[in-house]
Each structure stands twice: as structure tokens, then as C-alpha cells.
Records
---
Amino acid sequence: MTDAPFILDRGESLWRQRISQFFAKPSAYISFGLLVLLLLIAIFAPWIAPQNPYDLAQLDIMDGRLPPGSTSMDGKTFWLGTDEQGRDMLSAILYGLRISLFVGVVSTFFACIIGASIGVFAAYKGGKVESFVMRLVDLQLSFPAILIALVLLAAFGRGIDKVIIALIIVQWAYYARTVRGNALVERNRDYMEAARCLALPRSRILFSHLLPNCLPPLIVVATVQVAHAIALEATLSFLGVGVPVTEPSLGMLIKNGYDYLMSGKYWISTWPGLALVLAIVVINLVGDRLRDVLNPRLAK
Amino acid sequence: MSGPILSIHDLKVEFGTRQGVVKAVDGVSLNVYRGEVLGLVGESGSGKSVTGLSILGLIDPPGRIASGSIKLEGQELIGLPEHELRRLRGERMAMIFQDPMTTLNPVLRIDTQMIETIRAHEKVSEKAARSRAEEALKRVGIPSPAERLLTYPHQLSGGMRQRVAIAIALLMSPALLVADEPTTALDVTIQSQIIAEVQQLCAETGTALIWITHDLAVVAGLADRIAVMYAGRIVEEGDVDPVLDHPRHPYTYGLLGSAPSNNRRGEKLAQIPGMTPSLANLPPGCAFAPRCAFAQDDCRVVPPALTHAGSRAWRCFHPVPDRETV
Amino acid sequence: MLAYLIRRVGQALLVIAAMATIVFLSIYAVGNPVDILANPNADAKEMAEISARLGLDKPLWEQFGLFVWNALHGNLGRSFVFNEPALKLIIQRMPATLELAFVALIMSIVIGIPLGVWAGLKPDAWSSRTIMSGSILGFSLPNFWIGLMLILLFAVQLKWLPSGGRGPTTNLFGIPVSFLSWEGLRYLLLPAFTLALYKAALVIRLSRSGTREAVLQDYVRFARAKGLSPTRIVLVHVLKNIMIPVVTILGLELGSMIAFAVVTETVFAYPGMGKLLIDSIGRLDRPVIVAYLMMVVVIFVVINLIVDLLYAALDPRVRLQESEG
């Protein structure tokens, strides 16, 4: 590692130290910066996008399938081309990014909370309860996520909320396992013994003592899982079981453009694809950097 | 051959560490003759294993042989191209290590590991190689060798595994065998068996043997000559009986004194005070001075050179007086 | 070894039984099974017929018995769309998917192990770092997008390979396979490669860490002290040691490969089980979905079983431990 060793500076809180460690490597600035940029784009899409791709009144089918750089009937430039309905690709991507990120972050967030709570609870209870929960976790994790998600969505139907629920159901187990593993290590540590000796109420021990110490690896895992969730949602949308056609995520946009790949109208699929890949790579980079900082033993 | 089988001259081996360059071996010179057993004694960190590995050319980065000469049967090994060294390894010189469970590959059968050694050096049929392997197992005292060939290492006991390793090492009848603490990981009873067997084998074949160990008791019964290492240097050397009866270097003296057999019942075990110095942080002057009962001021200024007396040598300004016996 | 075998088979059967129960409960106990398993266009007479066949008037456990009985006889309902037994449809498409998965598996080994071992032997070389970065991309990028890009490059731009579908098949023991002809292979190449990429990345990382660990081991040092050539040391000593974890993980991943084939088959319009599933979901052809689920569970369990047995064959310590224990 080329980073400076971890030095405890009196007066600096742990958070500030971690943050400065994070940025010790110059590439961290780039990846974090890109991440912030993507988030801003996603949040402010309605204001940035030249066109609202969902507003049917703004679309003109005569503008359909135009290559990048062409102009519309009324003089607007379609920098990234249009899809078969005349939607401006740039706007569609901005909105699509919004939905993709939204689904990814929200599903990860809830899956993390639910999974982590279950994991911590199981680790603390021990015995049969823990055994049962972990077997459930193992069973679910032994099946590929995509299959479970497919079956769930086949039953639920399409819709953003249903996708989020499906993703939560698919992902919670992973957090439960991670946290439980951590909790197992932590619960034998001295500070836990001390807390028990003080006869602190169990909920307090769990949430104020055990959970905060399980947080760092959890943060790392959750960050990388956001990328994973985004990829999974994109795949599901591409397969036609994810978000509805009216609110396309990046995956859905790619699906729309799939039929036109052969005829050389690559832009309908390629640009959304690049946006998707960019989002995933950036989140992964940030996640990796977090891992280096929060869990140096696990790096490499 | 009248000259020494192995002749090491002023060997220096360095390791690049975070704290800087560490001299694991700092100017070691040794000679070993045909059929002779040399005991190389020292604590961990003394440089004894590194010396052994250097002979076989198995020092990997971040370590490197900085300078010096190692001659095997008159041929200079340092600087020899890798494929030449590889030819000599296993054929003219061999090495066995401490833990036989990790020395033998756990997923390969014994016969595979033996036959490949032979066929790496000689063009023989598999059948011929197999019968030679069987012979070798018999020689190291392994019963039903033909069946043993078909087994895996974990099916054998520790002592037997080490015997297999020894058999492999001696398969090509090398001129030199370097044994790096081969009995340390074994039961005491097995230890003496193996020591006796190796001694006999080497006597039979005339193989020169360097036995690296931290245990003086092992050396006492086995070696012809002894060399004691401390902090990368040889501090005492000579025929085994005179050295063990009348050690000159205070470290050897301390080692002998701390041997449990030297205690009277009920007495506290004598120990050399202090710890081996970190090789990155050697004191000025004699490396042993901080722990030495006989140290004087001049010991802390300049490291002593070897004083020779006949076939003995010691590295000390104020050696243990001749009269002192342990 | 025999005891081990019997025990493992018993475990496998238990898992299948558990899955069957779950599937049964979700169809029969949740909602009206007639709605799920009957054609929405059926008239009242057909509905009554189906109700009778499914035994919906009987107690639940009898229904379960009927379900199991039917399942064991290969009767998992009829497809709404094709009006054929659902299981028959799945089995018809199975060879295509299995073929794809196997070719992908072989590809991931052939690509992954040499690259991983190389990266392990020379961890600081520029080539190794490239390989490792590539492997990270391999499993974080969405698979379907990689497939699309490959189509764009090789089929549309370069026109070297077909963009989808399955090649001409020949019969091998009565099963139609396409890899025996060059033309058939051409159709398999891109989809198999796409499917293999994720696993190859995994194999690269595994092989690399395994190799890095192995070269530090005493037995490698001893092998060098014996004068063995580095080629032999890597190919025989190191490889056999890293094969064990690699095979285990790969074997377990084969099952997920078959599941992932769903995506690849859709991207490349490859007529396998996966595409059938997606189409069925789109067409609400539920009996086919149920049949696919059961089939996949069985395949999973069988694969896990085979992997365990293979592991025992490769690692002599496991085999003998079981026989002595």
C-alpha cells in the first residue's frame, strides 16, 4: 500500500480521519467526483434535460430513429439521437439514470437495514434461532439472484415499487450473512463483555454497541451492492419484467434499442448502456476505495 | 577428491525490508569435507537457514546474495545461470526441510514425487525409476516400500514422511545434503531414530551433511564439526567435542549452560538474559555484547574478527577462559 | 466412499422434496390454482375438468400427493400457448441450454486458469495488473450489455459471427447438439463467451490467489530443491492444488450459469430453456414457468451432488477421511 500509515491525531474524530484517508489517493477524487456528478444529474434531471421524454405531447413520431446530432422539426438538436418514438436520447438517459439510481439505492438501503437487523439479531440470540435464520440465508443465497427475482416479478407484475420489493427480497440475505459474521467476531470482544457486565438492556447493547462496530464492512458491502442492484434491475428490465415502459430505466432503454441494433441504429442502445456502465464502474471504484480505507486487511 | 565438497567464503545475504536492508548472513565462511557432518547451530534469526538456502540457490526476492563465493565440488555456484543450478539441485546437492507434511505435496502420490525427481535428472524408464524409488524407501527403513509408493503423504506418520523426504533427497546420491531442522517437528523418540539413520546413510554413501538446528543435544551425538551462528555471523567453530567441552565464545557457553541436562535438580534453569537483537537494529561492536556476562568496554565499540587456533575459531575479544568447563 | 455417496444422494432428494413443497404451496395454497394453471380462455367445462384433474375438491394433503404423483410422471400441466405438456417443452429446450452452459464452463476454465496462474506467478507485472482489472470489469459490468456490445462488434460491424439463434444440429445419442459442426460452433461462440465472462473473472481471481499461496508453500521449495523444471512445478504441483477450490466453486456456479443463461439466451435469441422462460413470463404461460422452476431445482441439486463427488475424487484427503470415519 502506498498510503501513509494510520496515525491517530488527537482532536480529529474518527470520521474525519477516515475521510482524509479516503482522499489520500488522487484517483479517489475522480471516482468520488464522478459519483457526485451522477447523483446530481439524477436528482436534477427534470431541470437539465432538454425534453421531458414522458410527455407525449412533446414527442413527434416523425423525429423517430434519428442518428446523433440531427435536428428536429422545430430546430432542437438531438445530441444523442432519438428512439423509435422520437424521444431525445439524452433526455431519456438522464431520466433513465434517475430511475436506475433510485431503484438501486432505495432497494439496497432497505435490504441493508432489514438484512443487517436480522443478522445482528440472529447473532445475538444464538442457538436455534441463529441456526434457523442462517439456514434460510444459505438456502436463499445458494440460488442465483436473477432467478429468484424473475420468479417474484413474474408473480408480481411490472412496476417500480414491485421491482424494489423484489430486489429487497433478493438482497437482504447477503447483508444478514455479512453482519452476522461480523457480529460473531465482535460479540466476543471485550467491550461487549463490559456492556453485558453493566447489565445494559439488550436492545441498547445491540444497537449502540454491537451494530456500530459492524458498520464499516457493512458500508463497504452496501456501496458495492448498489452497483449490483443497479445491474440487476437493468437486467430484469431488459428481460421485460422490470420497470414499466412508461418509466424506463436505463435497462429498459437498452431493451428498446435492442431491435434496432442489427439495422445499424446503435445509438438507441449504446448510449444508455454507456451511462449504465459508467454508473456501475464509478460506484464500484468508490466502494473499492472505501474498502481499502475501512478494512485494509481485506484489500487484495 | 581431496578438497572440501563445499566451500563457502565470506557469504553475505541481504533482505530488503521496510526498515531497510537487513544482513541476514554477514560474512560466513565454511568448509565441509566428504563424509563429514557439520552441525550449524543457532537461534531463529541467526541466519542458519538462510545460509542453507543460499547454497541451494533458493533465496527469493526480497532477499539476495550480495557477495561471497559458494563452491560445490570446486564449481562456483553464485552467478551460475538458473538452468545449471537446477541441474545440480537434487543431483549433486539436496535439501530437506523442517515440516515433512508441508514438504511433500499433499495431493500427489509418493511414487509420483519420487519418480519425477529421478526423471528430472536422468533419462530412465518409469519402471526403472520406480524400482529405484522402492530401493530408496527400503534404505531409509520404510516397511513394505512397494505399497507405500502408492500412498499419499497424509497417510503416513510424521517420522515416515520425513524418511520419505530423506529418501528423495538421497535418490541421486548427492555429494552434499543440507538438512534444515528436519527433526524439530517430530516426536523425541522418532528424532533419535532419524538422526541415527541419517548418520548411517551419509556414512555409507560418503555424503557430506550440514545439519541445521537450534538444539545442541542433537549436534552433540551427530556432528563431527560444529559452527555456531549469531546475528548472521559464525561466532564459534571447531570439532564438536572440544567446542562442547570447552566453549570459547560466551554465546556457546551460555547455550550449553542453559541446556536442561546441565542443571542440578531444583535449581533454576540458567538462561541467557535478553533477546536476540533485531537484525535491522544491531548494536555497534559485538552483536552479543548486550547479553554477554564477560563483556567489556572494547566489546561495544568494534565487532570482533575470528581468532583461529588450529582447527578451532571464535569471534570474541574476551573468550571464556580455558579453565572454565560447563 | 459408498456411505458418503448414499448420504449425499439422500440430502439431494431432501432438497428436491423441500422445493417441491414450496412450489406446491405457492400454487395451491396461495390463491386459486385454477387461475394459475388453467388457460384463461378456457370455458366452464374445461375449468371443471381441470379442477377434477388437480383434485381441488380433495383435502390439501391429497392434492399434494396428486401433485407429486403427477410430477413424477412428468405431468406438470399444459402450456397455454403451445398446448403441449409443459415439461415436454422444457425438456425439448434443455439440450440447447446445457450445451451453452457447458461450452461456457469450458471457456471460463480455458481462459481463466492460465490467466489467473500467470497473474499469480508474476503479480507485479503490467500484464498481471491488466488481467486483474479486466477481471473486475468482467463481473461488475452487466452481462447483457457485454453481450450486446459483442453483437455490435462481431456481428454488425465485423460480420464475422452470427448475431443470434442456434446453429445446425446433429444427433449425438439421440440428443440434438450443435457443437459438433463448425457452423454450429459459430453460433455458440458469442453467447458462450458472454456467459463465460462472469465465471472466467471468478476463476482468474481464484487461480491467482491460489497460485500466490501455493508458490510460498514448502512443497514448492522442496520441488525446486529437487531440481524440477519450473514448468513441471507449475503444471503438476501448483495446478493440482489450486484445481480443488476452483473446481468446487465452478461446479457450484454451473447451476447459476444455467440460470444466467436466461439473460444470454434472450440477448442472442438462443432457443434454450431460458428464452422459453422469458417468453412464458411475457405470455403468462404459467405451467411452463412452474415446470421450469422444478427442472432447475433438480438440475441444481444434481450438479451439487456431482461436484461433491468430484471434489472427493480430486482431493484424496476427503475420500479417505470419509472411508475411515
---
Amino acid sequence: MLKGDVVIVGAGPAGTAAAYVLAREGAQVYLLERGRQPGNKNLFGGAFYCQEFAELIPDFLDEAPIERIITKRTLTVLGERNWVDYELNSTNFANQPYNAVTVLRPKFDAWFAKKACQQGACLLNNTVAVDLLWENGKVVGVETDRPDGKIYADVVIGADGATSLMARQGGLANPKAHQYMALGIKQVFYLQEEEINKRFRLTPGEGLAREFLGGLPVIGGGFLYTNKSSLSVGVVIQLESLQDKMVQVVEVMEDFCRNPAIKELVAGSIPVEYGAHLIPEGGYHLLPKLYTDGMLLVGDAAGLVLATGFTFEGMNYAITSGIMAAKAILKASRNKDYSASSLKEYKSLLEESYVLPNFRKCRHIPELLANHRVHFAYPEILTKLAENNFKSDAKVRQALLGQINRELTGKVGKKVVLVDLYKAWRFL
Amino acid sequence: MKEIDYSKYVKQLIDGKLLQVKTRVNNKSHIKVDQEVCRGCVEKICVFACPAGCYQVVVGVLKFSHDGCLECGTCQVVCARGAVKWGYPQGGFGINYRFS
């Protein structure tokens, strides 16, 4: 049995950020990790939007295991035997402070946890929190799967990811969150660093983040990120859409990798790792309750993944939420009051930062992205229009609006398109 | 009841991919599936949704194996009948990502 000030369930970016700040301010922190090492059980695309991180660890770029600095962003719309790219190349993104970098989670999370330990946090690997401990309706600690494994603390932070058992046991989970739960399936391909530079036209050290729309039999999207000497490729599938189109998800993944647009990008590479992880994409409307007596939720466990369609932001929100949670707990500890009314400070801090305002601003996006026309009809029409406009086939040219009209006829009602455009405009 | 054709091709795909995942299998399964509930299920969406192919229909009966489980949590989300009692493997067991 152990006793501490704070016990944090999950040594991912959110839990570790909280542990770092709390330990730095002198709190006794137990940081639990069910894997052999932090990062072993974590998986993401992905891109890490790291500007805020520099405020926590200013010289992290000198020592953190970073893969590439993202200077090239592409959105690819996949059509029938064709595809259209919308690409940004930014030399601005190549300068500090970097907007986003790619990382590999087993390396990064392990490094970050080590930093938290250097501040004084106690990392307990190979430890699963199986239950919350309660006293008089208040959370007072966790039961772990270690012998004599109870850990008592003033506050428990649930940082155990998208499937958060802590959220469920704490009565905080949002039962409707399943509606927009997505499954990310990822394949890492080894490819020599110089070949990646050549193939993707990258300056050494710089990288690409690419998203794919269309081309899947279900609602979802594809992704490709460049690491130093590997490619992270995969699909994100909205689980609800599997109810309509029952297709095995591994087949979706395999077909995606075989799509001509992707096949040429991974040619000659060696598949080295496969994995899958859930992504909470419900956004603002489907967030769980963020706190209760003696407990807070951070990171994916708090539903804090912002999926805008162009970008997936999880790590940055996880880290900021961890920092805010730590600040709220430090304030609560001054009055020795860890009740819900005291821990409410955590939500207030999220409101005052960029976190909750951004989630509120993007609250319509999950609904927009769940629109099947966005994934099937529109990509098909967009790619056809693009192809038409580059074609010259001895026929009388048709004006763009006429072409759009022709493509829509019989497939999508014009009123429907206008409603979709209005919904998208609401976000813009 | 509809027999779901778990094609050889999909099985081969999954096996090939799971070979790439470093894992430490615990004898005890961390996921319990209630066969009584599964008997009445026609759609068996778990078979389609699991990225590790842990759920298979063999001679009309649902079979679950935790060996290749990627611990993603998909099965407990998609099963509308509550047949899946989901949990994490014992600390230190299960998947061990190297590059994710």
C-alpha cells in the first residue's frame, strides 16, 4: 500500500505533463503506467503541435527524440483512378518555434516520463489501475493489480486514454461518446532516410504530414506521416459507419495501402509494425464530465482530441490539460480542499486557455465529418471536375457551373449541397 | 443465422500484420465474451471491427482469442449487446509497441 499526494493513471503525454508540474512544485506523485515503459501502449498518427510544449520544457528540441519537422502538408482527395492534392510547402515552418513535428510515441513518451521523474515523480511501470477507491462518495485513490496494490492520494488524475476505465468508474464518462469514436489503424514502414527525402522532396530533417479524403468504403480518412527513416501510414475509421457497411477493417487498411496514390509512396519499404488505437472524435458536445470529488480527467480520457478534418490535435491538448490539472490541484492543495467545487478550477483554466474555446468553436465539425457525402459523393465529384478541366478532347467546353450541375444530377440534390455548404460555412 | 464468411484472405492479412507486433501473452484473457449473448446476435459486428481479428465465427459459433489483441477497445464500443466485458491485460503484458 502506498500513500501520496496525487496518483496519475497513465504515463502518456497528459499524465506525464501533470506529473512533471506537480512534482516540480514538490507534490508526491505516483505516475502509473500499465506498459513496460511509457509509450509502449500508445499509438498515434502523427503530428505533435509542439509550440506550447516549449513553455514547459524550453530546450526540449535539444534532447527530445523528434523525428522530422513538418514543413509540407498535403490534403489528397482520392477519386476513381485519380486524386487531387492541395499542398502547402512552408519554409516558415522550418524555423523555430516549430509548428509541428513527427515523433514515435515509445521513444517520446518514455523520454518525457523520464523528465517527470527528474522532477521527482515516481513512475510505476507494469501497473494497471483496476479500480477507484472511494470514501464517503469521494475518490481517495486507486486499486492496482500489484500485490497489496492500493495507492491512496488526495487526488486521482484519470489519464488512461480513449477507453478510460477511470472515467467510467468515476461516473464521468459520456455514454454518447461512442457515437463518434474512431478506430485508427496504423502501419509503420521502414524506408531509408535519404530515400524519404528524395521521394517526398524534403530537406533533410524536414517532414510531411498528409491526409486523405475519400477512397474508403466507410466514413473515415487516411494519413501518412514521415519519420526520420520510416513512414507512418494508416486509416481512421468512424466505427458507427461500420454498422452500414460491414467490411473487415484490416481489409480497409490493406486496400488503402494498395490505392495507386499510396502504393507509390510506400514502394520498396519494409512493414515493421502494425497497431490500432481508438480516437475520441466527438469534440465539444461529447466531452465527459471533467472532474468530481477527488478526481480529474485529462487528455484522451477527457475526450480532448480536436479532429478538424485537416489536422488531428491530441498531444498538445493532452499536455496543456495535464498542466492545467496540475495547476488546479496545486491551488486546491493550498486549502486542502479536493472536492468537486474546488477542482472546478481545472475546467476554468481550460476555459481561459485555448483548449475549451477551440473545442467550442469546432463543435459542429464531428457532424460535418460524419456526413457521408463528404466522404463519397463530393470527393468523386471534385476529382472528376478537376480531371475534366485539364482535359481537351475536341468537344465544346462546358462552363464550370454546368459541369457541377451535370455531376450532381442523379447523385446529389442541389438543395442538399446548399445545406452542406451552409453547415461548412458555419465553421469557416 | 447468417454465417459470416471469414475469408482466408483476411485471416492471412491479419496474421501477417500481427507478426510485426511485439507482445507478451498472458494465459489469462483480459477480455471476457458472454457466449450466451452472442448466440442471439446476427450482425456480429465484432468480427468486422476488430483490427486484430480476435473475433471469428467458426461453424456458427463466435470464437474469441485474446492472443493478438491490440488493446484498442473497439470491441466494447461496437458491441451493442454488452457481450464484451473489457479490461486491460495485467501490467507489463500484452502489446509492446516499438515504433508507434
